[in-house]
Write a structure and sequence with these properties.
- This protein is mostly helical and about 150 residues long.
- The protein is about 75% helix and about 0% strand.
- Helix 4 runs antiparallel to helix 5.
- The N and C termini lie far apart (about 50 Å).
């Protein structure tokens, strides 16, 4: 049963990463206002970081003899993170992505735990490394959302 739990956790994570990647990329394109240059760059850094992690997790599915999600229509079936309404407001975009980043951290903890259960130390280590990166993103979102 542990392999099945890992499969479910990884499919969910890959789908959620794609959802957040697309939303962060859209935020990068659509943000407006006086903080545009700073937020445009911040959202760009975030979406590139999120996208850069997807391949490892998808290939981990293949290492466990499971097909990785491969269609845009299939991603929502596995995702637990739902799309937000489009916006151009920087503060709203920060808040939406801050919440989604927290959900990704929960997903990463689950994958790490399930990887440990099947003794996949490489996957467990990568999930922990990514968790550390998302903790840093959490801090960066949080401080930008503070009122002066």
């Amino acid at each position: 049963m542990s392999e099945k739990n890992l499969e479910v956790a990884l499919r969910q994570l890959v789908s959620n990463l794609y959802t957040v990647y697309l939303e962060a990329h859209a935020a990068h394109w659509n943000v407006e206002g006086p903080l545009f240059p700073m937020l445009h760059e911040f959202f760009g850094d975030y979406y590139q970081d999120v996208f850069g992690s997807i391949d490892f997790f998808a290939e981990s599915l293949r290492q466990h003899e499971v097909l990785a999600p491969s269609t845009l229509s299939g991603l929502p079936r596995n995702a637990t993170i739902k799309e937000s309404n489009p916006s151009t407001n920087g503060a709203q975009l920060l808040q939406q992505l801050y919440g989604k980043n927290k959900l990704l951290m929960t997903n990463l903890k689950k994958v790490s735990s399930e990887a440990a259960a099947v003794d996949d130390q490489g996957l467990q280590n990568f999930a922990q490394e990514r968790l550390g990166k998302h903790l840093k993103w959490d801090w960066q979102f949080r401080v930008q959302l503070k009122k002066a």
